[in-house]
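User: Just a sanity check before I run the rest of the batch. Below are the C-alpha coordinates for the first item. I only need the designed sequence back.
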Protein backbone atom coordinates (compact mmCIF):
# COMPACT_ATOMS: atom_id res chain seq x y z
CA UNK A 1 0.00 0.00 0.00
CA UNK A 2 1.25 3.53 -0.76
CA UNK A 3 2.45 5.55 2.19
CA UNK A 4 0.04 8.29 3.28
CA UNK A 5 0.88 11.28 1.11
CA UNK A 6 0.59 13.75 3.96
CA UNK A 7 3.47 11.97 5.65
CA UNK A 8 5.83 12.12 2.70
CA UNK A 9 5.15 15.34 0.81
CA UNK A 10 6.44 17.68 3.52
CA UNK A 11 4.57 20.42 5.34
CA UNK A 12 1.97 22.11 3.15
CA UNK A 13 2.46 25.88 3.36
CA UNK A 14 -0.47 27.74 1.83
CA UNK A 15 1.83 30.48 0.52
CA UNK A 16 3.93 28.07 -1.54
CA UNK A 17 3.74 28.46 -5.34
CA UNK A 18 1.57 25.31 -5.60
CA UNK A 19 -0.31 23.50 -2.81
CA UNK A 20 -2.54 20.49 -3.52
CA UNK A 21 -4.77 19.22 -0.70
CA UNK A 22 -6.70 15.93 -0.72
CA UNK A 23 -6.94 16.01 -4.52
CA UNK A 24 -9.25 13.47 -6.17
CA UNK A 25 -10.06 13.17 -9.86
CA UNK A 26 -11.90 10.81 -12.17
CA UNK A 27 -12.82 11.21 -15.83
CA UNK A 28 -16.56 11.07 -16.69
CA UNK A 29 -16.02 8.04 -18.93
CA UNK A 30 -14.24 6.06 -16.18
CA UNK A 31 -15.93 3.17 -14.41
CA UNK A 32 -17.57 3.96 -11.06
CA UNK A 33 -14.98 3.98 -8.31
CA UNK A 34 -12.13 4.26 -10.83
CA UNK A 35 -10.02 7.26 -9.79
CA UNK A 36 -7.18 8.86 -11.73
CA UNK A 37 -5.95 10.59 -8.55
CA UNK A 38 -6.86 9.65 -4.98
CA UNK A 39 -6.38 11.93 -1.98
CA UNK A 40 -3.12 13.47 -3.17
CA UNK A 41 -1.30 16.09 -1.05
CA UNK A 42 1.72 17.87 -2.49
CA UNK A 43 3.41 21.26 -2.23
CA UNK A 44 5.92 23.01 -4.51
CA UNK A 45 8.25 25.36 -2.64
CA UNK A 46 9.64 28.64 -4.06
CA UNK A 47 12.43 27.98 -6.55
CA UNK A 48 11.92 24.21 -6.37
CA UNK A 49 11.93 21.74 -9.26
CA UNK A 50 9.90 18.57 -8.54
CA UNK A 51 9.99 15.59 -10.87
CA UNK A 52 6.82 13.49 -11.24
CA UNK A 53 7.64 9.82 -11.82
CA UNK A 54 5.42 6.80 -12.25
CA UNK A 55 4.20 4.21 -14.76
CA UNK A 56 1.90 5.16 -17.62
CA UNK A 57 -1.63 5.87 -16.44
CA UNK A 58 -0.68 6.67 -12.84
CA UNK A 59 -2.00 10.26 -13.06
CA UNK A 60 1.12 12.38 -13.76
CA UNK A 61 -0.20 14.37 -16.72
CA UNK A 62 -3.68 14.60 -15.17
CA UNK A 63 -2.05 16.23 -12.14
CA UNK A 64 -0.47 18.89 -14.36
CA UNK A 65 -3.79 19.49 -16.11
CA UNK A 66 -5.55 19.99 -12.77
CA UNK A 67 -2.97 22.57 -11.70
CA UNK A 68 -3.14 24.34 -15.06
CA UNK A 69 -6.95 24.39 -15.04
CA UNK A 70 -7.58 22.12 -18.02
CA UNK A 71 -9.39 19.68 -15.71
CA UNK A 72 -11.52 20.19 -12.60
CA UNK A 73 -10.84 18.15 -9.46
CA UNK A 74 -13.64 15.90 -8.21
CA UNK A 75 -12.63 16.78 -4.65
CA UNK A 76 -9.89 18.74 -2.94
CA UNK A 77 -8.26 22.08 -3.63
CA UNK A 78 -5.53 23.63 -5.76
CA UNK A 79 -3.85 26.79 -4.45
CA UNK A 80 -1.43 28.97 -6.42
CA UNK A 81 0.63 31.40 -4.32
CA UNK A 82 -1.91 31.16 -1.51
CA UNK A 83 -4.94 31.77 -3.74
CA UNK A 84 -7.44 28.96 -4.20
CA UNK A 85 -7.90 28.41 -7.94
CA UNK A 86 -9.87 25.15 -7.78
CA UNK A 87 -12.11 23.79 -5.05
CA UNK A 88 -15.67 22.99 -4.11
CA UNK A 89 -16.83 26.62 -4.43
CA UNK A 90 -14.03 28.07 -6.55
CA UNK A 91 -12.84 27.78 -10.13
CA UNK A 92 -10.36 30.03 -11.93
CA UNK A 93 -9.86 29.75 -15.69
CA UNK A 94 -6.43 28.60 -16.93
CA UNK A 95 -5.53 31.99 -18.42
CA UNK A 96 -6.02 33.65 -15.03
CA UNK A 97 -3.76 31.31 -13.02
CA UNK A 98 -0.40 32.73 -14.07
CA UNK A 99 1.04 29.35 -14.99
CA UNK A 100 3.25 28.45 -17.93
CA UNK A 101 3.05 25.02 -19.52
CA UNK A 102 5.48 23.26 -21.85
CA UNK A 103 3.97 20.32 -23.71
CA UNK A 104 5.67 17.19 -24.96
CA UNK A 105 5.17 18.29 -28.59
CA UNK A 106 6.03 21.94 -27.74
CA UNK A 107 2.63 23.20 -29.11
CA UNK A 108 4.29 26.13 -30.90
CA UNK A 109 2.22 28.13 -33.39
CA UNK A 110 3.52 27.08 -36.83
CA UNK A 111 2.32 30.32 -38.54
CA UNK A 112 4.20 32.57 -36.10
CA UNK A 113 7.94 33.17 -36.06
CA UNK A 114 10.03 32.67 -32.93
CA UNK A 115 9.60 36.26 -31.72
CA UNK A 116 5.82 36.18 -32.19
CA UNK A 117 5.61 32.80 -30.41
CA UNK A 118 7.47 34.14 -27.38
CA UNK A 119 5.33 37.31 -27.27
CA UNK A 120 2.03 35.49 -27.76
CA UNK A 121 1.07 35.47 -24.08
CA UNK A 122 1.99 39.11 -23.45
CA UNK A 123 -0.73 41.72 -23.06
CA UNK A 124 -0.78 45.03 -24.95
CA UNK A 125 1.58 47.41 -23.22
CA UNK A 126 3.68 44.65 -21.60
CA UNK A 127 7.44 45.12 -21.74
CA UNK A 128 8.88 43.14 -24.67
CA UNK A 129 12.37 43.36 -23.21
CA UNK A 130 11.72 40.20 -21.18
CA UNK A 131 11.06 38.28 -24.41
CA UNK A 132 14.39 39.42 -25.81
CA UNK A 133 16.14 38.58 -22.53
CA UNK A 134 14.66 35.07 -22.54
CA UNK A 135 15.71 34.43 -26.14
CA UNK A 136 19.24 35.47 -25.20
CA UNK A 137 19.17 33.40 -21.99
CA UNK A 138 18.09 30.32 -23.92
CA UNK A 139 20.58 30.77 -26.77
CA UNK A 140 18.05 31.78 -29.43
CA UNK A 141 19.37 35.24 -30.28
CA UNK A 142 19.46 35.70 -34.04
CA UNK A 143 16.65 33.18 -34.63
CA UNK A 144 13.77 35.59 -33.91
CA UNK A 145 12.43 35.54 -37.49
CA UNK A 146 12.60 31.82 -38.02
CA UNK A 147 9.44 29.72 -37.95
CA UNK A 148 9.18 26.54 -35.83
CA UNK A 149 9.77 24.25 -38.81
CA UNK A 150 13.06 26.07 -39.45
CA UNK A 151 14.37 25.29 -35.96
CA UNK A 152 15.97 22.12 -34.62
CA UNK A 153 14.24 20.04 -31.93
CA UNK A 154 16.39 21.53 -29.21
CA UNK A 155 15.73 25.06 -30.44
CA UNK A 156 11.97 24.41 -30.52
CA UNK A 157 12.13 23.15 -26.93
CA UNK A 158 14.02 26.28 -25.85
CA UNK A 159 11.45 28.41 -27.66
CA UNK A 160 8.60 26.64 -25.85
CA UNK A 161 10.34 27.38 -22.52
CA UNK A 162 10.80 31.03 -23.47
CA UNK A 163 7.13 31.37 -24.41
CA UNK A 164 5.98 29.81 -21.15
CA UNK A 165 8.18 32.15 -19.09
CA UNK A 166 7.67 35.37 -21.10
CA UNK A 167 4.53 36.60 -19.25
CA UNK A 168 6.47 36.47 -15.98
CA UNK A 169 4.96 33.17 -14.83
CA UNK A 170 6.62 31.95 -11.65
CA UNK A 171 5.15 28.44 -11.92
CA UNK A 172 6.07 26.21 -14.85
CA UNK A 173 4.53 22.82 -15.71
CA UNK A 174 6.61 20.56 -17.96
CA UNK A 175 5.09 17.45 -19.55
CA UNK A 176 7.98 15.20 -20.64
CA UNK A 177 9.78 18.18 -22.15
CA UNK A 178 12.84 16.28 -23.37
CA UNK A 179 11.33 13.02 -24.62
CA UNK A 180 11.40 13.95 -28.33
CA UNK A 181 15.05 15.02 -28.37
CA UNK A 182 18.14 13.03 -29.24
CA UNK A 183 20.38 11.94 -26.37
CA UNK A 184 23.03 14.66 -26.65
CA UNK A 185 20.54 17.52 -26.89
CA UNK A 186 18.37 16.04 -24.11
CA UNK A 187 21.31 15.80 -21.72
CA UNK A 188 22.42 19.34 -22.47
CA UNK A 189 18.97 20.90 -22.11
CA UNK A 190 18.07 19.06 -18.93
CA UNK A 191 21.33 20.18 -17.30
CA UNK A 192 20.50 23.80 -18.20
CA UNK A 193 16.90 23.76 -16.94
CA UNK A 194 17.59 24.36 -13.20
CA UNK A 195 19.77 27.38 -14.02
CA UNK A 196 17.11 28.84 -16.34
CA UNK A 197 14.42 28.43 -13.67
CA UNK A 198 16.65 30.03 -11.06
CA UNK A 199 17.44 32.97 -13.36
CA UNK A 200 13.72 33.52 -13.92
CA UNK A 201 12.75 33.02 -10.27
CA UNK A 202 10.40 30.20 -11.26
CA UNK A 203 9.33 26.92 -9.63
CA UNK A 204 8.41 23.89 -11.73
CA UNK A 205 6.78 20.46 -11.80
CA UNK A 206 8.18 18.16 -14.49
CA UNK A 207 6.62 14.89 -15.68
CA UNK A 208 9.15 12.33 -16.85
CA UNK A 209 9.32 8.56 -17.37
CA UNK A 210 13.08 8.57 -16.78
CA UNK A 211 14.15 8.07 -13.12
CA UNK A 212 17.72 9.00 -13.99
CA UNK A 213 16.57 12.30 -15.47
CA UNK A 214 14.40 13.14 -12.46
CA UNK A 215 17.11 12.35 -9.92
CA UNK A 216 19.80 14.16 -11.92
CA UNK A 217 18.22 17.63 -11.87
CA UNK A 218 15.22 17.74 -9.49
CA UNK A 219 15.24 18.99 -5.91
CA UNK A 220 12.61 16.40 -5.00
CA UNK A 221 11.06 13.46 -6.84
CA UNK A 222 7.39 12.50 -6.39
CA UNK A 223 6.62 8.86 -7.24
CA UNK A 224 3.01 8.13 -8.19
CA UNK A 225 1.30 4.75 -8.43
CA UNK A 226 -2.37 4.16 -9.25
CA UNK A 227 -3.23 7.81 -8.55
CA UNK A 228 -1.55 7.91 -5.13
CA UNK A 229 1.75 9.28 -3.91
CA UNK A 230 4.16 6.60 -2.72
CA UNK A 231 6.97 8.99 -1.84
CA UNK A 232 8.13 12.57 -2.37
CA UNK A 233 11.74 13.02 -1.29
CA UNK A 234 15.12 14.26 -2.37
CA UNK A 235 16.95 11.99 -4.81
CA UNK A 236 19.40 11.00 -2.07
CA UNK A 237 16.55 10.03 0.29
CA UNK A 238 14.92 7.98 -2.47
CA UNK A 239 18.13 6.05 -3.03
CA UNK A 240 18.94 5.55 0.64
CA UNK A 241 15.44 4.84 1.94
CA UNK A 242 12.72 4.00 -0.61
CA UNK A 243 9.41 4.29 1.26
CA UNK A 244 7.84 1.31 -0.53
CA UNK A 245 9.02 -1.73 -2.45
CA UNK A 246 7.46 -0.21 -5.57
CA UNK A 247 9.66 2.90 -5.29
CA UNK A 248 12.76 0.75 -4.98
CA UNK A 249 11.78 -1.37 -7.95
CA UNK A 250 10.51 1.39 -10.26
CA UNK A 251 12.94 4.20 -9.46
CA UNK A 252 16.10 2.31 -8.55
CA UNK A 253 15.48 -0.78 -10.71
CA UNK A 254 16.43 -2.91 -7.69
CA UNK A 255 15.50 -6.55 -7.10
CA UNK A 256 12.47 -7.67 -5.11
CA UNK A 257 12.99 -11.05 -3.48
CA UNK A 258 10.14 -12.88 -1.68
CA UNK A 259 11.07 -14.16 1.78
CA UNK A 260 9.49 -16.51 4.31
CA UNK A 261 9.51 -16.30 8.10
CA UNK A 262 11.32 -18.93 10.13
CA UNK A 263 11.40 -17.82 13.74
CA UNK A 264 13.38 -14.61 13.85
CA UNK A 265 14.96 -15.28 10.45
CA UNK A 266 13.95 -14.62 6.85
CA UNK A 267 14.55 -17.39 4.31
CA UNK A 268 15.08 -16.58 0.63
CA UNK A 269 16.45 -18.13 -2.55
CA UNK A 270 19.77 -16.49 -1.70
CA UNK A 271 19.91 -17.68 1.90
CA UNK A 272 18.80 -16.50 5.36
CA UNK A 273 18.59 -12.88 6.52
CA UNK A 274 17.89 -11.30 9.90
CA UNK A 275 16.74 -7.92 11.16
CA UNK A 276 19.33 -6.04 13.18
CA UNK A 277 16.93 -4.80 15.85
CA UNK A 278 13.23 -4.30 15.09
CA UNK A 279 10.87 -7.31 15.28
CA UNK A 280 9.52 -8.96 12.15
CA UNK A 281 6.13 -7.73 10.90
CA UNK A 282 3.38 -9.85 12.45
CA UNK A 283 1.80 -10.95 9.18
CA UNK A 284 1.55 -10.32 5.45
CA UNK A 285 3.79 -10.95 2.46
CA UNK A 286 7.42 -9.91 2.91
CA UNK A 287 9.94 -8.84 0.27
CA UNK A 288 13.59 -7.88 0.30
CA UNK A 289 14.92 -5.03 -1.84
CA UNK A 290 18.42 -5.78 -3.14
CA UNK A 291 20.46 -3.46 -5.38
CA UNK A 292 21.50 -4.84 -8.79
CA UNK A 293 25.15 -4.05 -8.00
CA UNK A 294 24.88 -5.69 -4.58
CA UNK A 295 24.85 -9.24 -5.97
CA UNK A 296 27.61 -11.51 -7.25
CA UNK A 297 27.49 -14.21 -9.93
CA UNK A 298 29.55 -17.38 -9.43
CA UNK A 299 29.75 -19.76 -12.43
CA UNK A 300 29.04 -23.29 -11.23
CA UNK A 301 28.26 -26.38 -13.28
CA UNK A 302 25.63 -27.65 -10.83
CA UNK A 303 24.41 -24.18 -9.83
CA UNK A 304 20.77 -23.54 -8.99
CA UNK A 305 20.61 -20.35 -11.11
CA UNK A 306 20.84 -19.69 -14.84
CA UNK A 307 21.75 -16.63 -16.92
CA UNK A 308 18.75 -15.66 -19.07
CA UNK A 309 20.26 -12.71 -20.91
CA UNK A 310 22.31 -9.54 -20.58
CA UNK A 311 22.51 -5.93 -21.74
CA UNK A 312 25.65 -3.95 -22.49
CA UNK A 313 25.55 -0.68 -20.53
CA UNK A 314 28.85 0.78 -21.70
CA UNK A 315 30.68 0.56 -18.37
CA UNK A 316 29.07 -2.66 -17.11
CA UNK A 317 26.80 -5.59 -17.95
CA UNK A 318 23.24 -5.92 -16.70
CA UNK A 319 22.43 -9.63 -16.37
CA UNK A 320 19.03 -11.28 -15.94
CA UNK A 321 19.41 -14.43 -13.88
CA UNK A 322 16.73 -16.99 -12.97
CA UNK A 323 16.95 -18.15 -9.35
CA UNK A 324 14.14 -20.49 -8.43
CA UNK A 325 10.90 -18.61 -9.06
CA UNK A 326 12.67 -15.22 -9.18
CA UNK A 327 14.38 -13.32 -11.97
CA UNK A 328 17.16 -11.13 -10.60
CA UNK A 329 19.05 -8.22 -12.14
CA UNK A 330 22.81 -8.12 -11.59
CA UNK A 331 25.05 -5.21 -12.59
CA UNK A 332 28.56 -6.63 -13.10
CA UNK A 333 31.92 -5.33 -14.39
CA UNK A 334 32.74 -5.79 -18.07
CA UNK A 335 35.44 -8.36 -17.29
CA UNK A 336 32.71 -10.68 -15.98
CA UNK A 337 31.65 -11.75 -19.47
CA UNK A 338 29.10 -14.58 -19.19
CA UNK A 339 26.91 -16.07 -21.91
CA UNK A 340 23.17 -16.74 -21.64
CA UNK A 341 22.49 -20.28 -20.48
CA UNK A 342 25.36 -20.35 -17.97
CA UNK A 343 24.51 -22.17 -14.74
CA UNK A 344 25.66 -20.35 -11.64
CA UNK A 345 25.05 -19.35 -8.05
CA UNK A 346 24.08 -15.83 -6.98
CA UNK A 347 25.04 -14.44 -3.61
CA UNK A 348 24.89 -11.13 -1.78
CA UNK A 349 28.16 -9.22 -1.81
CA UNK A 350 29.90 -9.16 1.58
CA UNK A 351 28.80 -6.14 3.59
CA UNK A 352 25.91 -5.39 1.23
CA UNK A 353 22.68 -4.53 3.02
CA UNK A 354 19.06 -5.00 2.03
CA UNK A 355 15.71 -3.52 3.02
CA UNK A 356 12.67 -5.50 4.18
CA UNK A 357 9.19 -4.42 3.04
CA UNK A 358 6.74 -3.38 4.23
CA UNK A 359 8.52 -0.99 6.54
CA UNK A 360 11.87 -0.42 4.77
CA UNK A 361 13.72 -2.09 7.67
CA UNK A 362 17.44 -2.84 7.20
CA UNK A 363 18.39 -6.52 7.20
CA UNK A 364 21.66 -8.43 6.99
CA UNK A 365 22.67 -11.80 5.63
CA UNK A 366 23.54 -14.21 8.40
CA UNK A 367 24.98 -17.23 6.56
CA UNK A 368 26.45 -18.36 3.28
CA UNK A 369 23.92 -18.86 0.48
CA UNK A 370 21.85 -22.00 0.75
CA UNK A 371 18.60 -23.19 -0.83
CA UNK A 372 15.30 -23.11 1.05
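Assistant: Here's the designed sequence for the first item:
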Amino acid sequence: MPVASSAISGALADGDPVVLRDLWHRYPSAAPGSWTLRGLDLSLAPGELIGLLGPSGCGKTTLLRLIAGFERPSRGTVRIHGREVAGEQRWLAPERRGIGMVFQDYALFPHLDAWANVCFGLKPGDDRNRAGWLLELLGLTGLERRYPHELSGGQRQRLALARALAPGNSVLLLDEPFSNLDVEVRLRLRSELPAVLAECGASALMVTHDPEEAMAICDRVAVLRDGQLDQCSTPLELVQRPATAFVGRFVLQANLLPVQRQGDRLLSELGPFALDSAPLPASGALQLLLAADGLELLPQADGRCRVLGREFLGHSWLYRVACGDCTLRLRLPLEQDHSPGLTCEVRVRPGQGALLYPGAQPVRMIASPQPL
